[in-house]
TrEMBL record:
All copies of domain Bacterial purine repressor N-terminal, residue ranges: 5-74
Assembly notes: Homodimer.
Xref: Pfam families: Pribosyltran, PuR_N
The family this protein is said to belong to: Belongs to the purine/pyrimidine phosphoribosyltransferase family. PurR subfamily.
The entry's keywords: DNA-binding, Transcription, Transcription regulation
Gene3D superfamilies: 3.40.50.2020, Winged helix-like DNA-binding domain superfamily/Winged helix DNA-binding domain
Coiled coil: none
Official protein name in the record: Purine operon repressor
Superkingdom to which the source organism belongs: Bacteria
Keyword check for Plastid: no
């Protein structure tokens, strides 16, 4: 039990909530923690709720009843999302990222925790009220983004492997077509990775035509799992809509031009804001 001044208690309660997104926290947790009456705790939470909403940090939901409490739902406000997406597009537009063959170097960006945390918060915003049990991505580049999203939504992460690992136990494997050359690849997922009828949010770093993500969708069908949503950091805008294998997805940035000869990259915001309005 901590005896703190109200100002200090507000700071610590805020910190407690920020580190436990999507957790249902009973009022008794705070009352016991600070040796305060529930009425005082309720007043404190009202102040915190007001600040969260005014600053665009998220929602603080109150659940009534014996099993009730409060739950912090992190969200990125419009201004914060625009600032982040513009920053992301600016980073991607650096011509030094062009690799031989017209590929784009992104590994350094995927290794920046702050950048991935902000991207994860945007996905957590658009899927805040979706019924999701688990985040899924395919190894390896999408892993930081998947874990960042999972942290914001308080959800576990499941990794689809390119090759089966003996430490994964028995697994389900499928073949899928991906890449501009329509190459045949294999992906595998441990039978223990998903519970029956799981609802899955697929997250990936890059999507061209959507072959890899469609492969994950097909793999989930083998588990009787449901795709609750798809989020991609960057999508290719060089692929016609008719050629894309997916229609319902959220992207943060769209790569429209990669000209290796002219050393030119053109990037614009993805469909994040239009998809956010639909939910």
């Amino acid at each position: 039990m901590k005896k703190l001044k109200r100002s200090a208690r507000l700071v610590e309660m805020t910190q407690y909530l920020l580190h436990r997104p999507h957790h249902l926290i009973p009022l008794t947790t705070f009352a016991d923690r600070y040796g305060a009456a529930k009425s005082s705790i309720s007043e404190d939470l009202s102040i915190i709720k007001e600040v969260f909403e005014e600053e665009g940090m998220g929602d603080l939901l109150t659940m009534a009843g014996a099993a009730g409490g409060v739950k912090f739902i992190p969200k990125a406000g419009q201004e914060q999302a625009e600032e982040f997406i513009n920053h992301l597009c600016s980073m991607l537009s650096d011509s030094s990222r062009i690799l031989p063959g017209g590929y784009l170097y992104m590994s350094d960006m995927l290794g920046l925790p702050n950048l991935m945390n902000e991207a994860g918060k945007l996905f957590a915003t658009v899927f805040a009220h979706a019924d999701i049990d688990v985040i899924m991505t395919v190894e390896t580049k999408g892993i930081p983004l998947a874990y960042a999203t999972g942290a914001q939504l308080n959800l576990p992460v499941v990794l689809v492997r390119r090759d089966h690992k003996v430490t994964e136990g028995s697994a389900v494997s499928i073949n899928y077509v991906s890449g501009s050359h329509k190459s045949l690849h294999t992906m595998t997922l441990s039978k223990r990775a998903l519970k029956p009828n799981a609802k899955v949010l697929i997250v990936d770093d890059f999507m061209k035509a959507g072959g890899t993500i469609q492969g994950m969708v097909d793999l989930l069908a083998e588990f009787n799992a449901t795709v609750a949503g798809v989020g991609v950091l960057v999508e290719s805008g060089e692929i016609d809509t008719e050629q894309k294998l997916l229609e319902d997805y959220v992207s943060l940035a769209t790569l429209t031009v990669v000209d290796a000869k002219e050393k030119e990259i053109s990037v614009q915001p993805g469909n994040y804001f239009s998809r956010l309005q639909r939910r």
